[in-house]
Amino acid sequence: MSHHQHDHPLGPPRLIDRRTLLRVGGIGFGAPLLAACAPKTPTTTVGSTTATTSTAPATTTLPGFAAFAATVTTTLADGVWMIECDGMPEHEMMTGITSWQQQVPVAQPYTGANAWRIPSRPQLADQPISARTSLYRGAIALAVNGVPIFNALNNRGDNAFLAGELDSWGGHAGRADDYHYHVAPLHLSERVGAGKPIAYALDGFAIYGITEPDGSNVTGLDELNGHDLGTGYHYHGTTTYPYINGGLRGMVSVAGDQIDPQPVTRPFRPDGQPLRGATISSFTSSTSGKYALSYSLDGGVGHVDYALNSLSLTFTYTEPSGATRSETYTR
Q: Residue 49, exposed/middle/buried by CB under 10 A (0-12, 13-18, 19+)?
């Protein structure tokens, strides 16, 4: 399948207005893990013959994650950073989505053997992988706030941002009700501080914001949104496609068109269906595990209220007509 060019600037009016409120210069914008439940397919290790070790120095902590130490845990074991989190960001979610499949954000068990894995000493591959034509399933990076980052192109190969599928932070909920970004979470630059990454690609190379670690302007990016200025290869987030790392320059293994291994997310309810014409207008959450989403449709307002505990989730749906129904699912 061929796709049109994707070098569209990030920033229709609804997103620019929100970013201005974030006080980050108007550009703080930021397909589910289906393969996790699919049969295993042969795994291919990319670039294993002529790989070279990154010149980036080894560290005792993974830069950037410290700002989110209360909700994200990093542990170095056998040359791999194990990142434990629940995938739920501190910021608002879902508001602004105009193409919604009735999925909602739910905390995920990214812990123990199901944690995210980031190589501590990434290696450049002889055959990089482009996200323009592959990696339509699963994550390709992890933001330092513990939110996975998927290909800018959804599992149909379409630009998720241009399709109206993303909220004002660049994310949405997938088929396992797993929240994830499809563009760079540039708003994290202010939170992590100057010179620190906002994310890491799953090949281990850091992803910075719209400036270099020393504060200088970014120039000379390759087709994957990365470069090496003499201190080691790294990627950058941008406001035009590919927005985030446009593939993987480092060595990774691929199975079923996604990076392998990566955490498993399992849907606990039937797939949501597109709600044509709906726009999500608000989303709130509480520390007690209760969530409320509102949307506008055909001049009316609908609501999805849900609450979760360790064993189950209960949903109450209120249609714009006023009709209600409730559903309970076991995780």
A: exposed
Residues of the chain falling short of pLDDT 50: 1-6, 8, 11-45, 47-59
Task: For residue 25, count other CB atoms closer than 10 A to its CB.
Answer: 12
- Number of structural domains (the chain) is 2
Q: What is the DSSP letter of 39?
A: P
Single pTM value for the model: 0.84
d(CA 165, CA 171): 8
Query: How many Cα atoms occupy the beta-carbon half-sphere of 5 within 13 Å?
Result: 5
Report the alpha-carbon distance of residue 15 to residue 161 in Å, rounded: 10
Q: What is the pLDDT of residue 215?
A: 95
Residue matched to tokens 């739920």: 88
Q: Domain residues for 297?
A: 279-330
Q: Which residues pair with 271 in a beta bridge?
A: none
To which residue do tokens 């397919």 refer? 41
Other beta carbons within 10 Å of 212 = 17
Domain boundary among 229, 259, 289: 259
Residue 12 CA from chain centroid, whole number: 20
Half-sphere exposure of 83 (CA within 13 A, CB side): 32
Closest CA to 114 of 138, 79, 146, 82: 82
Give the rounded distance of the alpha carbon of 18 from its chain centre: 19
